[in-house]
Amino acid sequence: MTTRNFLKDLISKVAAPVDPNRGARRRAGEVAALCHALMSERGEVSGAALARDVLAAYSALPANAHTPFLHLLAAEFSPDAAAIDRAAAAFAGGRSPQLLIKLQQAVESPRQELFRRLNVAPGATAVLVDLRRRVLRELRNSPQLASVDADLAHLLASWFNRGFLKLERIDWRTPAIVLEKLITYEAVHEIAGWKDLRRRLAADRRCFGFFHPALPDEPLIFIEVALTDRISDAVPPLLDQDAPVADPTRADSAIFYSITNCQEGLRGVSFGNMLIKQVVEQLSREFPRLKNYATLSPIPGFRAWLDLAARDNEAVATLLPALKNRDWQQDAAMTATMRDKLMQLCAHYLLRAKKDSAPLDAVSRFHLGNGARLERLNWLADTSPAGMQRSAGMMVNYVYRLDEVEANHEAFVREGSIATSHAIKKLARDCDLTGRHTVARNTDAN
Amino acid sequence: MTTRNFLKDLISKVAAPVDPNRGARRRAGEVAALCHALMSERGEVSGAALARDVLAAYSALPANAHTPFLHLLAAEFSPDAAAIDRAAAAFAGGRSPQLLIKLQQAVESPRQELFRRLNVAPGATAVLVDLRRRVLRELRNSPQLASVDADLAHLLASWFNRGFLKLERIDWRTPAIVLEKLITYEAVHEIAGWKDLRRRLAADRRCFGFFHPALPDEPLIFIEVALTDRISDAVPPLLDQDAPVADPTRADSAIFYSITNCQEGLRGVSFGNMLIKQVVEQLSREFPRLKNYATLSPIPGFRAWLDLAARDNEAVATLLPALKNRDWQQDAAMTATMRDKLMQLCAHYLLRAKKDSAPLDAVSRFHLGNGARLERLNWLADTSPAGMQRSAGMMVNYVYRLDEVEANHEAFVREGSIATSHAIKKLARDCDLTGRHTVARNTDAN
Amino acid sequence: MTTRNFLKDLISKVAAPVDPNRGARRRAGEVAALCHALMSERGEVSGAALARDVLAAYSALPANAHTPFLHLLAAEFSPDAAAIDRAAAAFAGGRSPQLLIKLQQAVESPRQELFRRLNVAPGATAVLVDLRRRVLRELRNSPQLASVDADLAHLLASWFNRGFLKLERIDWRTPAIVLEKLITYEAVHEIAGWKDLRRRLAADRRCFGFFHPALPDEPLIFIEVALTDRISDAVPPLLDQDAPVADPTRADSAIFYSITNCQEGLRGVSFGNMLIKQVVEQLSREFPRLKNYATLSPIPGFRAWLDLAARDNEAVATLLPALKNRDWQQDAAMTATMRDKLMQLCAHYLLRAKKDSAPLDAVSRFHLGNGARLERLNWLADTSPAGMQRSAGMMVNYVYRLDEVEANHEAFVREGSIATSHAIKKLARDCDLTGRHTVARNTDAN
Amino acid sequence: MTTRNFLKDLISKVAAPVDPNRGARRRAGEVAALCHALMSERGEVSGAALARDVLAAYSALPANAHTPFLHLLAAEFSPDAAAIDRAAAAFAGGRSPQLLIKLQQAVESPRQELFRRLNVAPGATAVLVDLRRRVLRELRNSPQLASVDADLAHLLASWFNRGFLKLERIDWRTPAIVLEKLITYEAVHEIAGWKDLRRRLAADRRCFGFFHPALPDEPLIFIEVALTDRISDAVPPLLDQDAPVADPTRADSAIFYSITNCQEGLRGVSFGNMLIKQVVEQLSREFPRLKNYATLSPIPGFRAWLDLAARDNEAVATLLPALKNRDWQQDAAMTATMRDKLMQLCAHYLLRAKKDSAPLDAVSRFHLGNGARLERLNWLADTSPAGMQRSAGMMVNYVYRLDEVEANHEAFVREGSIATSHAIKKLARDCDLTGRHTVARNTDAN
Known about the structure:
Helix content of chain A is about 55%, strand content about 10%. By secondary structure, chain A is of the alpha+beta class. Chain A has three domains: about 5-75 and about 110-160, Butyryl-CoA Dehydrogenase, subunit A, domain 3 (Up-down Bundle); about 165-295, Aminopeptidase (3-Layer(aba) Sandwich), CATH 3.40.630.180; about 300-430, Malonyl-CoA decarboxylase, catalytic domain (Aminopeptidase). In chain A, α2 (about 20-40) runs antiparallel to α3, α14 (about 300-310) packs across α15 (about 315-325) and α16 (about 330-350) crosses α20. The termini of chain A are far apart. At the A-B interface, α3, α5, α6, α9 and α13 of A face α3, α5, α6, α9 and α13 of B.
């Protein structure tokens, strides 16, 4: 019996363990044993078959065996610390390229080679992306998984290099297996079903995504665009499933109203910046009449910051009770009273609320970091419960002008300066608040 | 003027330098400067444009500027040795995953990040493969490029992971841009032109290659197969452009008569093993009647080894003068005399001549390492000048049986034992030579 | 002003006609005028542009202008009767190939050339298929459109020749634009939405359709297949959206449970026969374990025939009141009583009820004409309202055995004999009914 | 034994006939018998298999059996003359749509249905195109095949309707199986091999063809375009395999220097007109700087016409002896003497030599009929033997301006007027010749 058959046999014998955790640990151990086999000399000639075996065994793991397996990955496939010390000492003594190479080899986790060998099996790339997702979720409880995360993050960032991605238009001719992913993943404005999706892919809309050849049915990120007459100042018309389809060749504005990162396992591998710019280029070729490229974005941190600001500022504090009224936005008198003050406060928030010299608002940070301009604040642009709760119903347009993004970005990175319209500057000036009132950063940008 | 425009401007001003080497160094320096810009904070937002600029400037380098540029890559994009020492000391002190991660980051060359950022530009992957080719060629003269080579080798091995490659059939429906590469690259039996190529792609032949999505017009490796009646014992019938096309459904043997690695820049990234096994699987599905999968391979190291063996052995020495006669193989009396002795010596060479416990012959090493069986020695199977000069006209069949390759491989790796037919064993036994007579290894396998 | 511009101008001037019918006739006349222009000498050089103009004008016709336009097609693009008489007389006098060719040209409607010239415009083929649909609908009221119908039918049968169709698998990777057509067109067992559709395309199902290159988003006909363990005897399990997905490689039966002709405009261009046989071949290659290929078909004419039979036969007549009870099938005592009698009557109906020597039942006629065998009658196999109303809840399996379809078909066509199982024969023998009780044929087969 | 097996059996028994013509007739008869079977009731259910049998038997016909088979097609699959007479009489008496339809059915050859049923077999469309080629070749000797030709021509014109063709760019990424067809078919300027072909597909060239979905590897017609600086006045620079590749984005002219109809069997199904206009549109989108779209065309009928003109005109007659000198064009004094006179005569030929009111020159007729303008006569533009022999070395540029082709075409068709440059008009005016000197038309246009 070859080792491989022996291990397969072993796995098949596992039936109905008495102590579920002991069973889970045993199952995790069996997958780890297959991983060791894959790393052995047999891996070279039977690599493809062994990789398939690992994947099959891993995929058959019961739910409670996943965490034990992650810990085995951390414990059994890390580099040899003593060997690192030796290689580091040799390098400190010699400084030759060869000694550097040896040190680099010593510090690289065997896990990386394991993942590379696993990737030979069909479907493995998707499994590795999913493995990273599990690691990220477990990381809070198990900081010792940091190395596993770092290895996966490093490998996936290399494999999902922008040069290997394809920008693809997503429309009603796209396979259903991809389209249903949009419904599942959409993070900004939920897609209510196939009818809603169909409207979002109609002739006056565009949707683009990045795809990797190893995951042909999985968008990595996608962006939804409405082609409109003037820059949109409210989201409901964009989400109206029964809105008549306009003639896109007459539009002057492209509104990026939703951008969604799909793969949790690729967190930190950033595509959004490249996607927006490439979509701007593509749209400008298809529709020469377009002159505005703008987002219609939420301001996710505004309300939380406002609560904080209210602690030091009485004027702000007096606003809050009204905001806590359900449906205050339907009261015309109320909105008339609130409008100026809230817009001023929001402009102040967007321009001056910082954390570590970067804007406090995550979405703002993302678009300004991409070189966009903060163009317009829109009153009652999103009166959905989420919109009211996060942004007091306001939304903001960030405008992308290809000829100024680089200068904006440099000024933003170097000096923290924000490209802003006069209108927003004026609103911020009219705000009598001082101080930054920083809260914890949101982690995700739209 | 932005930095980017400034640099572009600078490049365009360079015209007709007086001292060619000074000019070359300056040009190399300009490309390196663009590389630094790509690594700077601007790289994030303008990465795609900067990467394109680097590529354009690099592609426009004059021939004598390439070596200076490689040296700049080695000098200016290596990791900071002092920072490595500090990180190594911290890790020696602490042993936490975080400290390991920091050390891993410290030892990774900035070059790797540079190459990853470059890869964003269209066509960059091909340029990086070609850069590795240049580094390999320069390495003999400039050992300090070893780190550059190691970085590229590591990155390319990761990117060209088998999981990202596609096995594709190559036939007369393949685009001409790919087919002309076969003519250019074929390394074993030169392709004389389009007519020769067309015959090699006819109905009784198969050709397969591995392709990477980023290099769609470039085979990485390809294998040529003839579907024959019985295992071929000579190469001329396989290369006859005017041979009638046989019915492939009646063939019982698939003869792998040529396998070519195409990309010098991917040296060390091995595909051959996987290719052969996958082709065997594919052919067995298409042609259920096939029962033999065999190579018809050269024995590239035999004659050189024979010269060496002649130094210690008089009987061998007496054979050599005859072999130096041009066209001795056309003299029937001569071949009758030589046949037994040379075949015995060749069997001895294949079974017993070793270097570091591995077979001395590179082709043999490759196929035995893949788990193949050494099946048959063929007298006067390749009487071309190259065939006579390298192998005294002999060729060998290595046979692949999927159900024994793993066991063969393990026995070969662990004990150095070679799966061999009785006929070859007998020939080797009949050889009165002793000793191994090792010469320097050939580096490439067929 | 060229004629073309003149006509375009004319069209654009048409605004708000007073008498809607007069306006409709005028609009129809304008399209006909463009058609005449397309047939003139200008058609040769400006054919593509003129064809586009005709299509645009036709597509912009108001609803009430379509019938007038069809009448203009009949009146103004028919062959010249006097010229036909002359050519017929010449042929009667001479009998040469040349005179025959002239007669053939004389009788061919100029409409055919008009349709061929129109087809040059993008999207025209779909418009012509739709035009045929309109003609068919109008034909009952306007028998003078028979010639227009004959011309379109002749042309479309030639263009949609089976040799130009592609059999394509339809699954969850198919573009949504095609999938939504399945939901729209499915004629046998309505598809309740995307979830229902997704289940019908799962791993234990197959769906195939014929497509024409000029209508890439339009299935012409599609068939739904369930891969099951034994021949299905009831439809609800096949339509259960929440049924677990079985392993198709273990199935022994392929059940054709729905076949739908999609294009009303292609009525009479038959694909169904070819589709079934090609799907059988394809499935047998993919799943070597399959041994039964059977339909699960409705018996659409049974109940209507039963009502008729009841007029002459008292025993039958006494059954009817019970059948008219809503939900009688849920009364166990009742079904026990009815089962034998109804099954005998249905077997009699399937084997002996004829019209013009062909089976009265349309679905039966279709499958028996294809060479299928009448295999099994299934009691309460479809208790949906439609199933109860048409077939008293029964369904039938027709079995396709590739090695007997030709003989079955010949026996069926020549002698009207029906390949039948013993079980059904016995049921029919046990039926005490005599006579054929023919009602008007249903026109469509499942 | 079924009929089908019986016939197959019959065929297989045919071996080594004594009288070759008797054997040929027998083989032809067997194919015809299979055709009759395909037309019988069995054709409906076993159509696909029978069609394959017919094709296989037809493809296996020996060379001398083809003509007998064509005669059987003419004799046995023509319409029934008596039935035609009856249907014609009924129509003369009744004039209803139904009677017209019956007459149309009576006159249609059963051959058409035979061809449509044959087309169901894979590869049949190509066989039918080839069958037409054979009919055309045989037609001169066998005028009774005119009906077979008319049927095939009618059917193929319908199937190869422009609406079903795809315009495809042909370049170095095109499959070799298509590219080798260009080498085979090129009719204007022979392609010397793969190197020549590669140059004609380089970046400063374009090549387009029409393809039909049923013949994916077969261009129906293709056009070769050079993107140049100014309108080319000579062909050798365009055919120079070693000419440096120019930057196509800087070109101001697109020169159509070769257009080839590939399928003899599609003679009379015209694509050329549509191809040129579509290519002009496509090029203008890709290269906005292009302002001239011109041919560089031969004048195939000029020398033959000149010989004829010399009979009546002494001045012309005196030129001829010089033209008969081999290589007169290399004698500078000679060319100086001849230039003006020959160019005047050629302008006269192009503008005034007619047959039936159309230009005598076939190429001229084609391009002027398409609405092109006769722009420039080029002295010694093609000094190849063929060029000297047909056109005394001259070539002509026809210019396509999309905004005038329709008007040019109408004027040409209605009044025979030719859009011409002043330079050519002047040359023609300066010619002292009168009369038209018509010779038999060339049949093919470039």
